[in-house]
UniProtKB/TrEMBL annotation:
GO terms for cellular component: cytoplasm. It comes from Agromyces albus. Pfam families: Radical_SAM. Coiled coil: none annotated. PROSITE patterns: RADICAL_SAM. Belongs to the anaerobic coproporphyrinogen-III oxidase family. HemW subfamily. SMART domains: Elp3. One of its GO terms (biological process) is porphyrin-containing compound biosynthetic process. Gene3D superfamilies: Aldolase class I. GO terms for molecular function: 4 iron, 4 sulfur cluster binding; coproporphyrinogen oxidase activity; metal ion binding. CDD domains: Radical_SAM (cd01335). This is Heme chaperone HemW. It is found in: Cytoplasm. The lineage of its organism: Bacteria, Bacillati, Actinomycetota, Actinomycetes, Micrococcales.
Amino acid sequence: MGSALPLGDSAPADGVLPPSAAAGAAERAFGVYVHVPFCRVRCGYCDFNTYTAGELRGARQADYADHAIGEIRMSRRMLEASGVPDRTAQTVFFGGGTPTLLPADDLVRMLGAVRDEFGFAAGVEVTTEANPDSVGPADLQRLADGGFTRVSFGMQSAVPHVLAALDRTHDPARVPLVVGWARDAGLDVSLDLIYGTPGESLDDWRRSLEFAVGQRPDHLSAYALIVEQGTKLARQIRRGELETPDDDLEADMYELAEDLLGAAGYEWYEVSNWATAPAHRSRHNLGYWRSDDWWGVGPGAHSHVGGVRWWNAKHPAAYAERVAAGVSPAVGREVLDASTRETERVLLGTRIREGIDLGSLRPEGRTAVAGLVADGLVDAKTALSGGLVLTMRGRLLADAVVRRLLEV
């Protein structure tokens, strides 16, 4: 979730969606995302909508759970008024920021509000992100007792100088402790990694991967570092204090991740995500890649229902003011046209292992598939069976594959 809100139309104060949002909703999965926008320190690479204590200006972290619960209560009424049929939440995801800077009881209260308003599907997946230094064993047990099923720890690296370049504050030695505590509480565990940090070598990255695999998490994410304009990291690179990330080295790092994770029993299911078994894939994130429906709660949170996308006021104080006034916290929205929805379907669908049905492509896209197979970007066997799945090389060049499928 980038810090800059997109351009769009003004969102109505009553939050009612256009009639098109309800079409086919009963057949689409529904999830809830809860944004908790607080961090102890701002990492130099981060462009997310997050705030340290000194940046809150009129908002109080202690009041946040009540404001978020207010939006959750409001969301159910708005969907009903829009003619969207009732659906239980199949997934709930608390992201940030650092959600676990809030007391575990606050997170459980917000989750309880989602349960009260929407109900939970059987086997609901409930995740929170956490920094290794933001939780203890009692916190994790409280979350598990309160209905959370999964925790995603922002490990990022096992190498101190890489963590320092990212402005991460935790000690790598803390990671085995929190993984063990989460296991003891009965939670599934994911570890998030970042590669391509300035000054990170291939051997550094190997060390991080081997350390992560040694914890035996159920799920691993590995994302290439993106240098976002306006961040501290971008300024450091511009001044020559840090090196610009090297594309060729990042490709080598990705291939190393696939080799090491594959050998350890992890299977890729999305370009940047691996799991030990299908049951441990992030169903919430798969909902994004499949263009399902979700309601995003919190400052700057984005939502999507039936091709209608909207976003909330960015700053926690502005967000709280709107919720307290009983009006929708959304400040802008867009209704995606057919062409944009098709582009997004192909862009997102090609990223996941299940791929897309060749028959669903436009004629020009189907024509491009033979060339993509010949170039080693698309799996030939799957293509013969009527599907499109990226090869290892195709994952490295996923954007180029999409451009050829869409003739952009």
